[in-house]
Structure formats: C-alpha cells, structure tokens
Design brief:
Elements lengths: L11 E5 L4 H12 L3 E6 L2 H11 L4 E4 L5 H15 L4 E4 L14 H26 L5 E6 L12 H20 L5 E8 L21 H13 L4 E4 L2 H10 L3 H10 L10 H11 L4 H13 L1
Parallel strand pairs: 1-2, 1-4, 2-3, 4-5, 5-6, 6-7
C-alpha cells in the first residue's frame, strides 16, 4: 500500500551551501513545497540573494561550516527567526581534482573539514534539536563516489564514504525516535563542481533539479538511500557481488578512470573557489603550523 506523502508546508528547512548549484536547487524545491527555507553559504551575499528569490520568510546568511561555533550559532539564529528546525540538508562540499601523491595537505584538510567534519557536526546539532521533539529529517548529500571510486578524487571519495557510513550509523541510533535520515548519492551533476570532468558511460549527467526532486520525494515519503539517477542503485548492487577484477573492469567501462584527465582550464575557476572555501579551517591550520 502506497504511503501518503508528508506535507512540507510550514516546515523549517536549512540548506548549507545553498547559494548556488545543488544547494540552490534544493532550496527552491523545498520552498515550492511550502517549506520555510534558511540558506547558509560562505558567500553571504549569494545566500541572501538566493533567499530573496524564494520570497516569504526565507532567510540567507553567511556560513563557514568549518567554524563549528558559528554553525551552531547560525542554527540558533534560524530557530529564533523561523521556528524549530524540521529539516537539515548538509549539502556544502568541494571536490578538488588531483592525484593523491600531488595533493597538498591543505586540500586534504579542507575536504575533511567541509565534506565530512561539518556533516558530522551538522548532524549532531540536528539530532540535539530534533530528538527531544521526536520529529525531524536529516539529509546528507553524499555522492556516487561514496560507493565507488575514481583516480584523482581519492580524498573526496574518502569523505563521501565517510558521509554514507555516518548516515547509516545515525539512522540506527535514531530508529524509533521519529527523526528520519536520508543520504543522497548523485552521479556527476551539471554543476561547477564537476566542470571539465568526462561524462560517465551508461549514466547520464544529472541536473541540480533532478537531485532536488529526488531529495524532496524522500522527505515526503521517507527513504534512506536516494540514488540520482535511479539506475545507479542497480549498477552498484551488481558490481558489489562481482569479483574485484570484474568490478574494476565495470568501473573502467563506465569511464570512471578518466576523471583524473578532466579539462583543467574548464575547472580553473572552480578550483580557485574551492581553495578559498574554508577560511576558518585554513586559519586554524595556519595557527597550528606556526605554533609548532
């Protein structure tokens, strides 16, 4: 028997990294469903502009997710302005592209802080706010790279594997509480993050709107695993039971080995922005380095 979709009207939803790309598409989709949306993004002006576009009580503000006290304060501010947190979408993330033996420690640290530590902290804060009310929904945006892997994005893969493992453990911790968890695993999207990266064979590049629609569907009828496109679920399930040589042959056949050969010129603007995406984490690392 089909479940009756939940209404999102009046729900307070926070989207991190919501000034552009997938985050902005998520914010728009939530607003169309009647949710009251708060956008946090390192680009504070972009967050405000994205919120203004939504109208109503939407709110946008600067947020560096690697600054944990500031992240908690942002959520406090949202709850004071809009009401108790109903939905948190941990979306902020970066994907620098480089062979691991050439990757700077600052890049590794930046990805760990944005892609994983911030998701852990955001999830903790959501649990603390939702669990006493026995209601809420935590959405963690992971990636196909959290179940598969490709050369040139080793650190990114590590963080997204971590996000999926975190989400699975938290789902078990919250069982029976009324708080839901969803992990979203898109393939390459038509966003700046995947600019210049060769397309995968057999799997079309998805749009931010595709990802937003699948996420909203999982909020209305709760579901843990969300693959975008859906065919990825079957590909990963089949690959998981294959012997490793065959599994790696499938990965090569899908073109995943060519990620490292992305067009650097097309990625230049994104790579520069990603390198400046965690000022708090970078400042902390510099302070620790100079104190050593």
């Amino acid at each position: 028997m089909a479940k009756t979709p939940r209404s999102l009207t009046g729900k307070v939803a926070v989207v991190t990294g919501g000034a552009r790309g997938i985050g902005q598409a998520l914010a728009r989709a939530l607003a169309r469903e009647g949710a009251i949306v708060a956008i946090g993004d390192l680009d504070g002006a972009g967050a405000q502009d994205a919120a203004a576009e939504l109208g109503g009580r939407a709110y946008g503000a600067a947020l560096d997710v690697t600054d944990r006290p500031a992240f908690a304060a942002f959520l406090d501010d949202v709850e004071q302005r809009l009401g108790p947190l109903d939905i948190l979408v941990n979306n902020a993330g970066i994907m620098p592209l480089t062979p691991l033996d050439e990757e700077a420690d600052a890049s590794v640290t930046r990805q760990l802080e944005i892609n994983l530590h911030a998701v852990i902290f955001g999830t903790q804060e959501a649990m603390r706010r939702m669990r006493p009310r026995d209601t809420g929904h935590i959405v963690n945006i992971a990636s196909l790279a959290g179940r598969a892997a490709g050369p040139g994005i080793a650190t990114y893969c590590a963080t997204k594997h971590g996000v999926i493992g975190l989400s699975e453990a938290v789902r078990a911790e919250l069982r029976g509480t009324g708080v839901e968890v969803t992990v979203v695993m898109p393939g390459f999207a038509a966003t700046e993050l995947a600019a210049g990266v060769p397309d995968l064979r057999f799997v079309p590049r998805v749009t931010p709107e595709d990802i937003a629609a699948a996420t909203v569907a999982a909020l209305k009828v709760p579901r843990f695993d969300v693959w975008v496109p859906k065919r990825l679920a079957g590909i990963i399930a089949v690959a998981a039971v294959l012997p490793r040589p065959l599994r790696e042959w499938v990965a090569r056949a899908m073109n995943s080995q060519k990620v490292v050969h992305a067009d650097r010129a097309q990625r230049a603007a994104y790579e520069a922005r990603a390198a400046a995406s965690a000022p708090h984490a970078d400042e902390t690392a510099f302070e620790e380095e100079t104190a050593a």
